[in-house]
Amino acid sequence: MNKTMRLLAVPTLALGALAFSGGSAMAADASYSSTLGQLNGTTGTGTITVDVTGDTAMVNLQVNGLAQTFMDGPYPHVQHIHGGAQGACPTPANDTNGDGIVSTSEAASLYGDIQTTLTTSGATTPAEGLNLQLGGQGGSYTIQREIPLDAATKASLESGKAVVVVHGLDPATAGVSTEVFSSPSDLNPDLPLGATSPALCGTLVASQMGAMPSGGADTGVAQETGNTTGMLALGGGLVLAVAAGGTYLVRRSGAKA
After folding, report:
1. Model's pTM, two decimal places?
2. 41 neighbors 224 (Cβ within 8 angstroms)
3. How high is the pLDDT of residue 181?
């Protein structure tokens, strides 16, 4: 009887080991998340999770309540994982020129350069940083996709220095004049300053697995509220590069958006 019980136990244990092994293979190595804070008068919200398995990551970005329209079409918002700096988001004190908008250049020393572009499809390299065609479209959208993860981005995540930034302000809530909003962008003078400045920001913090990054998340500072949408064809007549058929596409290698 005991011999029979032992014989039956062998395949049972083997199956259990296989099930455990299969479950482990499918689990993420590490998971990171952030609730994005508001910048530059933004009234929207955002959350993101990044589940890392080897050299790939499953990204789930949810954005709501940002500027909705541009020239009767959806407002294109670009977003990135930045790194290589302090792993922090800017505050109004970082508006060093006093124009009322914390620009990308003014914030770069805190969150660093683009390491991964969170595009809706296609490549995710820094070269796609200002590719508006692959940005989120409209005021509310979801980006849910698996992306490759390069060594620099992975290192920033593991050190707690990876920061997610969503760009594109609403001229109705930015709290600055038309002239300031539509002045040349610090990233591309063909674009309005308000279109490339950070709207939402949050540091990605380890969760579920791995150690908590030192310092935790800095998600920025919420500013004045309001709502409504607005055109970006303002003041000096600067617009978001409209290609034939209403396609918005701008590329800039090595961008720091």
Report:
1. 0.73
2. yes
3. 96
